[in-house]
Amino acid sequence: MTPACPILHVDMDAFYASVMTRDRPELHDVPVVVGGGHRGVVLSANYPARRFGIRSGMPGAEAARLCPHALTMPPDFGLLTPVSRAIMETFRTVTPLVEVTSLDEAFLDVRGAVRLFGPPETIAERLRSRIRAEHGITCSVGIAASISVAKLASRQAKPDGVRVIPPDRFVAEVHPLDVGVLYGVGEATRQRLHRLGLVTVGDVAAVEVDLLRRMLGNHLGGHLHALVWGTDRTELVPGGAGVFGFGEGEPEGSMGAQHTLAVDVRDRVTLRRELLRLTARVAARVRTAGRTGRTVSVTVRFSDFTTVQRSRTLPVATDVTQEVYAVAVRLLDGLLDRGPRRLAVRLVGVRVEGLRPLRPADGRQMVLGERDPGWPDADRAVDRAIDRFGGSAVRRASLL
DNA sequence: TCTGGGGTCCTAGGACCC
DNA sequence: TCTGGGGTCCTAGGACCC
Prior knowledge:
alpha+beta; Alpha-Beta Plaits; MutS, DNA mismatch repair protein, domain I; single chain
């Protein structure tokens, strides 16, 4: 029989901080912050640090103000990634229906596993004790009929707990809460709803769906209506880690890179050099994934934090660094010429969109009368060298 | 010493075509 | 020589997630 609540959301507790201090018992009562260095944000804070009000996503400077004696360390993905992979593999011993949404979170559909392993609550406890035993860290599990409610439940289960929200308890337990608890309602939508006098989930549920659609737009209105009644049935998509660039597959639609400069910069030569560095990285990833993209998009964030983006779609898809860069640098120049003038630049980014698999026929066919400038060969040579000697072995002349 | 980096999806207007 | 609808593509911006 299919259980009423077949969806599990498993969320590691303070994953980065927990893993990085796991073998250092002397740090267990010390506030530890991962990330948040110069101009950065907090990626993870252990529970002692949270007692000072430190939260992930917070500017590092603010965290330092709240707790000056906290120990701050950069994330060590060489340590974190294998732990994450092993945990996700543990999930797959229960069900193949695992959607990995980040290094430290996944949704599981266990409807086919109850016969073998028992009810979802039992499965949750099994997974929790295995993760504790094998990796020395704790996690929390939300259990519900849908991913959106399971996600909400796991947040309430933290730390180191399990929470079930069955459909017949949804209204009683969720309607009194602030709309911001809903998965998919961020700060902007929350503020908007609050301004309309809709503060709790129940307040929104009392509004007719047609009115909601008129107030918030067709899609958001309809989606929100489903969320507040717990009827959203967005399907779990098995796989998915590639979306986050953690190496398990590659993203489908776009690949990009951006960087916040150590100091705000006005000098165009410096900005172009940074753009080339990022472009080389992105194009190499596109090639490695065996894809090409048609749209190049450049993002600039100015010192006042206003962010502008310009894109250009090419007639023919490319994976050639120099072709992407030629477009990107024109977009950058246009942006600097017409953007909020006089402001220094804080961040530059480049993205290749409209990715699709590279078919042999796409090859490097020449437009009539055009000479192949040899860039694809140069790219392949660079890719091979990076493959053999590592990324630091190869630098483009203009980066030296 | 305010505010990262990697993605996805939706909206809305204009161009262009039928 | 007046009015139009529908579909797709492109661009810019914004919201959301971890």
